[in-house]
Amino acid sequence: MHRLRVPSAGGDYDVVIGSGLLEDSGALVATAIASETASILLLYDEALVPFAYPALAEQGLRKVFARVVSHPVPSGEGSKSLAGAEALYHVCIRAGLDREAVIVALGGGVTGDLAGFVAATFMRGIRFIQMPTTVLAHDSSIGGKVAINLPPAGKNLVGAFHPPRLVLYDVATLATLPRSERSGGLAEAVKHGVIRDPSLFVWIEQHADELLAGETAATAELLARSCQVKVDVVGVDERESGLRAILNFGHTVGHAIEALSEGEWTHGACVAIGMMCETRIADVRGVLVDRSLPSRLRELLERLLLPVSVPSRFVGGPPSDALIELMRHDKKAVGRTLSFVLPRALGDVVQDRDVDESVVRASLPD
Ligand SMILES: NC(=O)c1ccc[n+]([C@@H]2O[C@H](COP(=O)([O-])OP(=O)(O)OC[C@H]3O[C@@H](n4cnc5c(N)ncnc54)[C@H](O)[C@@H]3O)[C@@H](O)[C@H]2O)c1
Ligand SMILES: [Zn+2]
């Protein structure tokens, strides 16, 4: 079992990573919230029902807590909505939640963001616990950001900082994750290596095959190491005044591709494309020092079965105008320049707020 401590203005919390933890969820939650009498509302991704994870979590919680209500959340980005949150407020009322109650999210980033948003706002905020079931959720479950979408204006536009009291990561649940979701989550771990931890990057190079196969011990170690990077960054800068911005490596281009491609790839796959493209921007800007980084990054992402090129249909003409427009919107850039986090070498990135859009355009094709 791996255990990390996250410093937070709202109260420090633990990330516990191991196999078979859902069975012991009651004891772990009781320790984290220092109570065995709180009402618990378990909100779970309905797609997890066939794998029995919600039943396992509920049984684990019932070993300690007398009042446990569980409720499904529809799978998919669409449930991160105001209507989705409103429906859950009524569930909270029906479940009799009071200010001492705890909302537990069992699922990926969608369930975590939505349940966390409901916990942040119901009765002006009640306690919240994350039980992530995707690799990507090692990123979303730490740091305290919770949000819903506001279509058509954009994703994550309405949200709050509401750190969890515990992140309980049962890696046994990851056995059923579709391959594309596993690869997408691994892209964020590669990003953590590039921005802050060269030894993590090298470790992923050495264990790529085990990670792709979902091997339990390797996956648990990866999550612990990658979570540690996120913990180090948000521990210094929980409210995103400076350092936290480095987490956006690959995301300026990645988010734009994700928005244009309308669900064709996972978020992580779009970030993989974005990391390659932003590395080329670093080269053109004269920021890149480590000449071997582009080929190493490409090789690792390809081994993890991630895409590495901006699709040709987005290069040149109106499609690239649309991509640039989305990047401009994303970073609220001024005039013709855009802001990027660019790599100098493994573990060393810098923010460049002055990238001319002609440089971005030229860096789209590889
Ligand atoms: N709050 C943050 O800081 C933060 C950071 C990054 C991403 N996010 C958000 O996270 C969301 C993406 O998270 P995600 O990639 O986990 O998506 P997700 O929650 O939609 O899960 C991906 C898919 O995997 C399925 N699934 C989940 N666990 C499974 C399991 N164990 N076995 C089989 N299938 C499983 C889900 O039903 C879904 O179809 C986005 O909404 C994004 O905005 C938030
Ligand atoms: Zn991301």
Describe it.
With 366 residues, this protein is an alpha/beta fold. It has 2 domains: 2-177, Rossmann fold, CATH 3.40.50; 180-363, Dehydroquinate synthase-like - alpha domain (Dehydroquinate synthase-like, alpha domain). It is built from 13 helices and 11 strands. It has helices at 25-33, 53-62, 82-94, 109-121, 137-140, 179-196, 198-212, 216-236, 251-261, 267-284, 293-303, 317-331, 357-363; strands at residues 2-6, 13-18, 40-45, 68-73, 102-107, 127-132, 145-150, 154-161, 166-170, 337-345, 348-356. It has a 7-stranded mixed beta sheet, with helices on both faces. The chain has a two-stranded antiparallel ribbon with strand order 7-8. A hairpin with a 6-residue loop joins strand 1 and strand 2. Helix 9 (251-261) crosses helix 12. The longest helix has 21 residues, at 216-236. The radius of gyration is 20 Å and the shape is globular. It starts with a strand and ends with a helix. The structure holds nicotinamide-adenine-dinucleotide and zinc ion.
**Which architecture of the largest domain does the CATH hierarchy give at level 2?**
Up-down Bundle
Bound molecules: nicotinamide-adenine-dinucleotide, zinc ion
Instruction: Tell me the name of the CATH class of the largest domain.
Output: Mainly Alpha
Instruction: Tell me the domain tally.
Output: 2
Helix run count: 13
Report low-confidence residues grouped into runs of 5 or more. none
Computed over alpha carbons, the radius of gyration is 20 Å
What is the CATH superfamily classification of the largest domain? Dehydroquinate synthase-like - alpha domain
- Quaternary organisation: single chain
